[in-house]
Structure formats: structure tokens, C-alpha cells
Specification:
It is a single chain. With about 400 residues, the chain is an alpha+beta fold. It has helices at about 30-45, 65-70, 95-120, 135-180, 180-195, 210-240, 255-265, 265-270, 290-310, 365-375, and strands at about 20-25, 55-60, 75-80, 85-90, 200, 205, 250, 275-280, 285-290, 315-320, 325-330, 380-385, 390-395. It has a five-stranded mixed sheet with strand order 8-10-11-13-12. Strands 2-1-3-4 form a four-stranded mixed sheet. The radius of gyration is 37 Å and the shape is rod-shaped.
């Protein structure tokens, strides 16, 4: 007999089958295979009058675990699962194969039934006989094991992803907390200078020209806005699920931003009597980038250049219109340089050269620079300077005309 065409093997409701011949027909949702499936089912319907068998229709889209259980590489496929041995008919000529194998399958079933009868006759009346498990039920159980195995694997992947996100958040929070020191120091210096020169009785700033007073007030406001932005970033990273730094790109002039950062750090490099050489073309095109993020990159690179350049040394900055799509910015120093074997690793989180282990810092500034530049679809790398020291280069996309 031919069972209902849409009956499925299910692990939730196992099917107990006593049919001597059991077949599984695997189908898929592709339109081009629909006609072939219809022809196979029609031919099996004709065979129903000749021989008793059970057919289960399985949609691989709904039960992929069964397809994996039988290691199918193509559908439709017709599988004889009982009696053993199992046999798979697949390809575009399943009906032709079935015409060849059908008489053999009948012979196999007759042999199986004869053996069952002989075995039954030999069983003692007082012996207990355990009914063999349904083949279809065992297939469903195997499919459930595969499904559970896949679910465990998926949960492990999800756990690893969550752990990676937590580690990323920890790194970013540490990076942003590290970078807060620069604007905090700049704002504190500006406010302290204004406070120390303010006369309460007269309500005026002593020993400060109006232009310098305005400059210090502007500096304090600018740095507090930067601090506010970075605190917002800390909160966003703490709440978000993304593993990328949030950026808000816009049309901007990187040369002007670079000059602003240089002015912001002027007291630091003049204190060490360091010379500054700039080569920023006036016709350098605008870039498509996040101004505050790029300020972080420039401050970090300049901060390192000032730190590692000895007193009386030289710090260089240069801009270059490399192609129609990108520009390159470079910041160099005359410090000890970066050993060849460490030029990739210095961008790793918390990596520090042995010579720097006794100096201030957390080894996270360059890692932050790399993440920001990559978030803008740019690149960052380091080379040796011709006269010693290091040259840090990064590229950014040009704002489309």
C-alpha cells in the first residue's frame, strides 16, 4: 500500500511501520525539479497495485538533518531503507533505475519475509521476542541527534561570538578611557591658566591679552566637546552589539584638522625644543571621514612622535594626494624607530616594545588608530625614516566631487 504522499518522518511524532518495503523520497522546492518529482510519484502510484510498500515524502528544506543523515548530494532522491542493505537512487533517471531495481527489491523483500517466518517457527513459545525497531523511527531518531549536534555547535559559535564582543568592548572602553587623558589635560591647562590670571576684584584677566584669553576659552570649549563625544562613545559601545567603532563620516579638510591638532599640542613639543616640519599641500582634496575620530588618530600619532623624539629632534607631517580615490597622511619622528619584526605587531592591542615597558602608556593607542582608519576603509602602516625614527602613514577616501 502507498501511504499518504505528504507524510513526513518526524522526530516529534515517530512513525511505527510494519511495512516490509520502506522508501523515502527526498524532494526540494526548486521549480525545475517539480515535474521530475511528479513523474516519480505517479510511477510509484502505479507500482502500488503490484506490491505493498510504504513511502515517506521528505522536503529537504524543512528537514535538512535527514538529508545530512543519508549524505545526499542531490535531490530528488529515492532511498530504500528497509530491508537492508540501504540503496539510493538519484539523478535525472530515477524512474529508469527504479524499473531495473524494482524486481530485485521485491525479491529482497520476499527473502526477508521468508527468513522472518523461519525464525518465528524456531522461537520457543516461552521465549520473549522483542519486536525490531521501526526503521523509519530509527531514522527519525538519528536525524534528531544530528539536529541536536548542530544546535550545540551553533550555541558554541554564539558563545564565542558573545565572548569576542565582550572582549572588544573591554578593549574599546580601555582605548577611549586612555584617549580621554589628552583632551582632559588640554582643557585643564586652559582653565587653570584662565583661573590663575583672573582678578576677582576687577573682573579682568591679568597678564593675558584679549586674543590669548579668547584662544584659551575656545580651547576649553573645544576640548570639553571632545570629552563629551568620547563619553557618548563609551556609553554607546557599552550598549551596542557591533564589533566596529561607530563613525559619522562627512566632508572635511584633514589638513586644517591636522594644523588644529598641532596647535593643541604646541606646548608639549616646544617644551622639548622639538622642531616641526609640515608639508601639507593647500590643494589637498577633502576626505570623507569622521572629524572627531580622525582627531583621535592625529592626536595619538603626534603624541607618540613627541614622546619618542628626543629633545631638539624633529617631527614631520606630510600630506599626499596619492590617487583620485585616496589621500595619504604621514607623521614622522627622529626617535629610535620601530624594529622590522615588530612593525605589524605594534598595532595589536596592549602590545608594547620591550624598551617601552618602563614608560607611561597602555599600548592601546595604535590599536585604536588602526580600528578607526579601517572603519573608514583606509590603511595604516609604519616605515623607517631615512634619517632614523619612524614614519606612520595612513590613507583615507577622497570626498567625491
Amino acid at each position: 500500500m502507498l501511504k499518504h504522499d505528504y507524510m513526513q518522518v518526524s522526530q516529534d511524532q515517530p512513525i511505527y511501520s510494519e511495512a516490509p518495503l520502506q522508501l523515502l523520497l527526498f524532494i526540494d522546492g526548486r521549480p525545475k525539479s517539480r515535474q521530475q518529482v511528479q513523474r516519480i510519484r505517479a510511477y510509484l502510484k502505479e507500482l502500488e497495485a503490484e506490491y505493498s510498500f510504504e513511502l515517506q515524502i521528505i522536503d529537504v528544506g524543512q528537514q535538512p538533518h535527514l538529508a545530512e543523515h543519508f549524505k545526499l548530494v542531490a535531490t530528488p532522491a529515492l532511498i530504500k531503507i528497509h530491508p537492508e542493505p540501504r540503496q539510493v537512487l538519484a539523478g535525472s533517471n530515477i524512474i529508469a533505475q527504479l524499473k531495473t531495481w524494482w524486481p530485485r527489491w521485491q525479491s529482497t523483500v520476499d527473502t526477508f519475509l521468508k527468513l522472518q517466518e523461519d525464525l518465528q517457527e524456531r522461537i520457543d513459545e516461552n521465549s520473549r521476542v522483542t519486536s525490531p525497531k521501526s526503521t523509519i523511527r530509527s531514522v527519525a531518531a538519528s536525524a534528531e541527534l544530528i539536529r541536536l549536534s548542530d544546535e550545540i555547535f551553533r550555541l558554541k559559535q554564539e558563545k564565542e561570538k558573545l565572548q569576542e564582543q565582550l572582549q572588544f568592548k573591554d578593549r574599546v572602553i580601555a582605548m577611549l578611557a586612555h584617549d580621554l587623558r589628552n583632551p582632559l589635560t588640554a582643557a585643564a591647562i586652559a582653565i587653570e591658566t584662565l583661573q590663575s590670571n583672573y582678578n576677582i576684584d576687577t573682573g579682568e584677566f591679568q597678564r593675558l591679552k584679549p586674543a590669548m584669553t579668547a584662544h584659551l576659552l575656545k580651547q576649553a570649549r573645544s576640548q570639553t566637546r571632545t570629552i563629551d563625544r568620547m563619553i557618548a562613545d563609551l556609553l554607546q559601545v557599552g550598549r551596542g552589539k557591533d564589533t566596529e567603532l561607530p563613525i559619522t563620516p562627512q566632508k572635511m579638510e584633514l589638513g586644517e584638522l591636522c594644523l588644529d591638532v598641532i596647535e593643541q599640542l604646541r606646548d608639549r613639543y616646544t617644551t622639548k625644543s622639538q622642531k616641526l616640519e609640515t608639508d601639507i599641500p593647500k590643494d589637498l582634496p577633502c576626505v570623507y571621514a569622521d572629524p572627531e575620530r580622525m582627531r583621535q588618530v592625529l592626536v595619538n600619532l603626534f603624541d607618540n612622535a613627541i614622546k619618542y623624539t628626543p629633545a631638539g629632534g624633529t617631527i614631520s607631517v606630510a600630506g599626499l594626494h596619492r590617487t583620485t580615490q585616496k589621500i595619504q597622511f604621514s607623521i614622522g619622528d627622529t626617535g629610535p624607530g620601530i624594529p622590522q619584526e615588530n612593525r605589524d605587531r605594534i598595532f595589536e592591542n596592549h602590545f608594547r616594545l620591550k624598551r617601552d615597558e618602563g614608560t607611561d602608556g597602555y599600548g592601546i593607542g595604535l590599536c585604536l588608530c588602526q580600528r578607526i582608519v579601517r572603519a573608514h576603509y583606509g590603511q595604516i602602516w609604519v616605515d623607517s625614516a631615512p634619517n632614523g625614527g619612524a614614519w606612520f602613514h595612513f590613507t583615507l577616501p577622497v570626498y567625491p566631487s
